[in-house]
Design brief:
mainly alpha; globular; 285 residues; 0% strand
Protein backbone atom coordinates (compact mmCIF):
# COMPACT_ATOMS: atom_id res chain seq x y z
CA UNK A 1 0.00 0.00 0.00
CA UNK A 2 1.09 3.58 -0.62
CA UNK A 3 1.66 6.55 1.64
CA UNK A 4 2.55 10.26 1.49
CA UNK A 5 0.29 13.27 0.89
CA UNK A 6 0.48 13.23 -2.91
CA UNK A 7 -0.60 9.58 -3.15
CA UNK A 8 -4.24 10.37 -3.84
CA UNK A 9 -6.61 7.39 -3.81
CA UNK A 10 -8.62 6.49 -6.91
CA UNK A 11 -11.45 4.05 -7.49
CA UNK A 12 -10.70 0.63 -9.02
CA UNK A 13 -12.87 1.64 -11.99
CA UNK A 14 -10.40 4.41 -12.80
CA UNK A 15 -7.54 1.94 -13.12
CA UNK A 16 -9.56 -0.74 -14.88
CA UNK A 17 -10.55 1.56 -17.74
CA UNK A 18 -6.89 2.21 -18.64
CA UNK A 19 -5.32 -0.07 -21.21
CA UNK A 20 -2.80 -2.64 -19.90
CA UNK A 21 -0.09 -1.29 -22.24
CA UNK A 22 -0.47 2.17 -20.72
CA UNK A 23 -0.27 0.82 -17.17
CA UNK A 24 2.67 -1.52 -17.76
CA UNK A 25 5.41 1.12 -17.15
CA UNK A 26 3.76 1.90 -13.80
CA UNK A 27 3.62 -1.79 -12.87
CA UNK A 28 7.30 -2.19 -13.78
CA UNK A 29 8.32 0.92 -11.85
CA UNK A 30 6.43 -0.17 -8.75
CA UNK A 31 7.89 -3.68 -8.92
CA UNK A 32 11.41 -2.22 -9.06
CA UNK A 33 10.75 -0.13 -5.96
CA UNK A 34 9.07 -3.03 -4.16
CA UNK A 35 11.75 -5.60 -4.90
CA UNK A 36 9.60 -7.46 -7.40
CA UNK A 37 6.30 -7.32 -5.52
CA UNK A 38 3.41 -6.29 -7.81
CA UNK A 39 1.36 -3.18 -7.12
CA UNK A 40 -2.19 -3.52 -5.91
CA UNK A 41 -4.91 -1.53 -7.66
CA UNK A 42 -4.81 1.33 -5.15
CA UNK A 43 -1.04 1.72 -5.39
CA UNK A 44 -1.09 1.57 -9.18
CA UNK A 45 -3.82 4.19 -9.38
CA UNK A 46 -2.06 6.49 -6.92
CA UNK A 47 1.18 6.24 -8.88
CA UNK A 48 -0.64 7.04 -12.11
CA UNK A 49 -2.32 10.12 -10.61
CA UNK A 50 0.91 11.22 -8.95
CA UNK A 51 2.88 11.32 -12.18
CA UNK A 52 0.24 13.67 -13.62
CA UNK A 53 0.69 15.84 -10.52
CA UNK A 54 4.47 15.99 -10.89
CA UNK A 55 4.01 16.89 -14.56
CA UNK A 56 1.67 19.75 -13.69
CA UNK A 57 4.13 21.05 -11.08
CA UNK A 58 6.86 20.95 -13.73
CA UNK A 59 4.75 23.05 -16.07
CA UNK A 60 4.99 25.98 -13.66
CA UNK A 61 8.80 25.84 -13.63
CA UNK A 62 9.28 25.13 -17.33
CA UNK A 63 6.92 27.93 -18.34
CA UNK A 64 8.95 30.49 -16.40
CA UNK A 65 12.28 29.08 -17.57
CA UNK A 66 11.43 28.94 -21.26
CA UNK A 67 9.94 32.44 -21.43
CA UNK A 68 12.70 34.08 -19.38
CA UNK A 69 15.50 32.42 -21.37
CA UNK A 70 13.81 33.34 -24.63
CA UNK A 71 13.57 36.98 -23.58
CA UNK A 72 17.13 37.41 -22.33
CA UNK A 73 18.55 35.74 -25.43
CA UNK A 74 16.38 37.93 -27.65
CA UNK A 75 17.56 41.08 -25.88
CA UNK A 76 21.23 40.22 -26.35
CA UNK A 77 20.80 39.12 -29.95
CA UNK A 78 19.02 42.34 -30.84
CA UNK A 79 22.03 44.28 -29.60
CA UNK A 80 24.55 41.94 -31.24
CA UNK A 81 22.76 41.88 -34.59
CA UNK A 82 22.32 45.65 -34.50
CA UNK A 83 26.05 46.09 -33.98
CA UNK A 84 26.91 43.50 -36.63
CA UNK A 85 24.70 44.77 -39.45
CA UNK A 86 22.73 47.71 -38.01
CA UNK A 87 19.54 45.67 -37.98
CA UNK A 88 18.34 44.59 -34.52
CA UNK A 89 15.64 42.28 -35.91
CA UNK A 90 17.87 39.23 -35.82
CA UNK A 91 15.18 36.81 -36.95
CA UNK A 92 14.02 38.84 -39.95
CA UNK A 93 17.42 40.12 -41.03
CA UNK A 94 20.11 38.08 -39.24
CA UNK A 95 23.78 38.87 -39.66
CA UNK A 96 25.55 36.26 -41.76
CA UNK A 97 27.10 34.26 -38.85
CA UNK A 98 23.72 34.01 -37.12
CA UNK A 99 21.91 33.11 -40.34
CA UNK A 100 24.29 30.17 -40.77
CA UNK A 101 23.63 28.97 -37.24
CA UNK A 102 19.84 29.23 -37.50
CA UNK A 103 19.59 27.83 -41.01
CA UNK A 104 17.24 28.94 -43.77
CA UNK A 105 14.68 26.23 -42.96
CA UNK A 106 14.25 27.44 -39.37
CA UNK A 107 14.03 31.07 -40.43
CA UNK A 108 11.44 30.35 -43.12
CA UNK A 109 9.47 28.18 -40.70
CA UNK A 110 9.34 30.92 -38.08
CA UNK A 111 8.21 33.49 -40.64
CA UNK A 112 5.54 31.10 -41.94
CA UNK A 113 4.27 30.40 -38.43
CA UNK A 114 4.17 34.11 -37.58
CA UNK A 115 2.21 34.94 -40.74
CA UNK A 116 -0.22 32.10 -40.03
CA UNK A 117 -0.62 33.36 -36.46
CA UNK A 118 -1.33 36.82 -37.85
CA UNK A 119 -4.12 35.43 -40.04
CA UNK A 120 -5.60 33.53 -37.12
CA UNK A 121 -5.82 36.73 -35.08
CA UNK A 122 -8.59 38.00 -37.32
CA UNK A 123 -11.01 35.42 -35.93
CA UNK A 124 -11.87 35.93 -32.26
CA UNK A 125 -11.21 32.94 -30.03
CA UNK A 126 -14.54 31.78 -28.54
CA UNK A 127 -12.82 31.33 -25.17
CA UNK A 128 -10.27 34.15 -25.22
CA UNK A 129 -12.08 36.83 -27.21
CA UNK A 130 -10.46 39.10 -29.83
CA UNK A 131 -6.67 38.84 -30.10
CA UNK A 132 -4.93 41.93 -28.66
CA UNK A 133 -2.69 42.11 -31.76
CA UNK A 134 -5.31 41.56 -34.46
CA UNK A 135 -4.68 43.58 -37.63
CA UNK A 136 -1.06 44.21 -36.58
CA UNK A 137 1.77 43.48 -39.02
CA UNK A 138 4.23 40.69 -38.20
CA UNK A 139 7.06 42.02 -36.04
CA UNK A 140 10.24 40.66 -34.46
CA UNK A 141 8.23 39.99 -31.30
CA UNK A 142 5.88 37.74 -33.28
CA UNK A 143 8.81 35.74 -34.60
CA UNK A 144 10.41 35.45 -31.16
CA UNK A 145 7.10 34.13 -29.80
CA UNK A 146 7.34 31.25 -32.29
CA UNK A 147 10.75 30.08 -31.03
CA UNK A 148 10.67 26.61 -29.53
CA UNK A 149 12.77 25.31 -26.67
CA UNK A 150 14.80 23.46 -29.31
CA UNK A 151 15.42 26.70 -31.22
CA UNK A 152 16.81 28.29 -28.06
CA UNK A 153 19.17 25.38 -27.37
CA UNK A 154 20.33 25.48 -31.00
CA UNK A 155 21.66 29.00 -30.47
CA UNK A 156 24.06 27.85 -27.76
CA UNK A 157 27.32 25.92 -28.06
CA UNK A 158 27.04 22.14 -27.99
CA UNK A 159 29.04 19.16 -29.24
CA UNK A 160 32.48 20.81 -28.93
CA UNK A 161 35.08 20.02 -31.57
CA UNK A 162 37.87 17.58 -30.90
CA UNK A 163 41.32 18.91 -30.19
CA UNK A 164 42.32 18.31 -33.80
CA UNK A 165 39.10 19.85 -35.05
CA UNK A 166 39.65 22.97 -32.98
CA UNK A 167 43.15 23.38 -34.41
CA UNK A 168 41.62 23.44 -37.88
CA UNK A 169 39.36 26.37 -36.94
CA UNK A 170 40.89 29.65 -38.07
CA UNK A 171 39.92 31.45 -34.86
CA UNK A 172 40.01 28.39 -32.62
CA UNK A 173 36.27 28.73 -31.90
CA UNK A 174 33.11 27.40 -33.55
CA UNK A 175 30.37 29.74 -34.77
CA UNK A 176 28.22 29.06 -31.70
CA UNK A 177 31.18 29.59 -29.40
CA UNK A 178 31.77 32.96 -31.03
CA UNK A 179 28.11 33.83 -30.55
CA UNK A 180 28.36 32.84 -26.89
CA UNK A 181 31.46 34.97 -26.32
CA UNK A 182 30.08 38.01 -28.13
CA UNK A 183 26.41 37.96 -27.13
CA UNK A 184 24.85 35.01 -25.35
CA UNK A 185 27.13 35.06 -22.31
CA UNK A 186 25.77 38.52 -21.48
CA UNK A 187 22.33 36.97 -20.98
CA UNK A 188 23.73 34.89 -18.09
CA UNK A 189 25.90 37.35 -16.12
CA UNK A 190 25.90 35.25 -12.94
CA UNK A 191 26.79 31.89 -14.49
CA UNK A 192 30.34 32.09 -13.13
CA UNK A 193 29.01 32.33 -9.58
CA UNK A 194 26.73 29.35 -10.22
CA UNK A 195 29.57 27.26 -11.67
CA UNK A 196 31.53 27.73 -8.46
CA UNK A 197 28.96 25.51 -6.75
CA UNK A 198 30.06 21.88 -7.04
CA UNK A 199 26.45 20.79 -7.56
CA UNK A 200 26.42 22.45 -10.96
CA UNK A 201 29.63 20.89 -12.25
CA UNK A 202 29.19 18.32 -15.02
CA UNK A 203 31.03 16.43 -17.72
CA UNK A 204 30.79 19.50 -19.96
CA UNK A 205 32.71 21.56 -17.43
CA UNK A 206 35.37 18.90 -16.85
CA UNK A 207 36.20 18.60 -20.53
CA UNK A 208 39.14 20.49 -21.98
CA UNK A 209 37.14 23.49 -23.13
CA UNK A 210 38.35 27.06 -23.57
CA UNK A 211 37.54 28.94 -20.39
CA UNK A 212 35.60 31.59 -22.32
CA UNK A 213 33.00 29.11 -23.58
CA UNK A 214 32.82 26.43 -20.85
CA UNK A 215 29.83 28.12 -19.22
CA UNK A 216 28.00 28.15 -22.55
CA UNK A 217 28.22 24.38 -22.75
CA UNK A 218 26.88 24.05 -19.20
CA UNK A 219 23.88 26.29 -19.92
CA UNK A 220 23.25 24.52 -23.23
CA UNK A 221 23.38 21.04 -21.67
CA UNK A 222 21.07 22.04 -18.81
CA UNK A 223 18.53 23.55 -21.21
CA UNK A 224 18.65 20.52 -23.49
CA UNK A 225 17.89 18.21 -20.55
CA UNK A 226 14.97 20.47 -19.62
CA UNK A 227 13.81 20.44 -23.24
CA UNK A 228 13.51 16.66 -23.15
CA UNK A 229 11.50 16.80 -19.91
CA UNK A 230 9.30 19.52 -21.39
CA UNK A 231 8.59 17.43 -24.49
CA UNK A 232 7.58 14.39 -22.44
CA UNK A 233 5.23 16.49 -20.34
CA UNK A 234 3.79 18.31 -23.37
CA UNK A 235 2.94 14.98 -25.00
CA UNK A 236 1.43 13.49 -21.81
CA UNK A 237 4.15 10.86 -21.58
CA UNK A 238 5.04 9.34 -18.23
CA UNK A 239 7.96 10.87 -16.35
CA UNK A 240 8.58 8.16 -13.76
CA UNK A 241 12.25 7.76 -14.64
CA UNK A 242 13.10 11.43 -14.92
CA UNK A 243 15.69 12.50 -12.33
CA UNK A 244 13.40 15.23 -11.04
CA UNK A 245 15.76 16.64 -8.42
CA UNK A 246 18.62 17.03 -10.88
CA UNK A 247 16.41 18.49 -13.59
CA UNK A 248 14.96 20.93 -11.05
CA UNK A 249 18.53 21.92 -10.18
CA UNK A 250 19.16 22.47 -13.92
CA UNK A 251 16.25 24.92 -14.10
CA UNK A 252 17.40 26.85 -11.04
CA UNK A 253 20.99 26.87 -12.31
CA UNK A 254 19.89 28.49 -15.57
CA UNK A 255 17.58 31.00 -13.89
CA UNK A 256 20.09 31.97 -11.21
CA UNK A 257 22.69 32.42 -13.94
CA UNK A 258 20.37 35.11 -15.34
CA UNK A 259 19.66 36.62 -11.92
CA UNK A 260 19.84 34.85 -8.53
CA UNK A 261 16.73 36.69 -7.40
CA UNK A 262 14.71 35.19 -10.26
CA UNK A 263 15.98 31.70 -9.48
CA UNK A 264 15.09 32.13 -5.82
CA UNK A 265 11.58 33.31 -6.69
CA UNK A 266 10.95 30.32 -8.96
CA UNK A 267 12.42 27.98 -6.34
CA UNK A 268 10.01 29.41 -3.76
CA UNK A 269 6.95 28.95 -5.98
CA UNK A 270 7.99 25.54 -7.34
CA UNK A 271 6.20 22.40 -6.14
CA UNK A 272 8.48 19.93 -7.94
CA UNK A 273 10.61 18.83 -4.99
CA UNK A 274 7.65 18.67 -2.63
CA UNK A 275 5.63 16.54 -5.04
CA UNK A 276 8.66 14.31 -5.69
CA UNK A 277 9.17 13.73 -1.97
CA UNK A 278 5.48 12.82 -1.68
CA UNK A 279 5.52 10.21 -4.44
CA UNK A 280 3.66 6.93 -3.87
CA UNK A 281 6.00 4.11 -2.94
CA UNK A 282 6.06 0.89 -0.94
CA UNK A 283 6.15 1.45 2.80
CA UNK A 284 9.62 -0.06 3.22
CA UNK A 285 11.22 2.27 0.60
Amino acid sequence: MVFRSYARPVTPAFVEILRPARLQPYRDYWAEMAGGAPADTASLGALYIWQVTISSSWYEVLCQTEVLVRNVLDSQLREWNGAACRKPDWLREPAVPLERILGSRVLMGLKHDAVRAQRNRATPDPEGGPHPRRNHVVTQDDLVAQLTFGNLVNLLPSDPPTENGRRRLQSGYTAREHLWRDAMSLAFPFVGDMMADFAYRSAEHRRQLPAEVAAGYLISAALDRLRRVRNRIAHHEQVLRVDHRRRHADALFVLRSIDPRIGDEVAEMSRVRTVWDGRPRPRHV
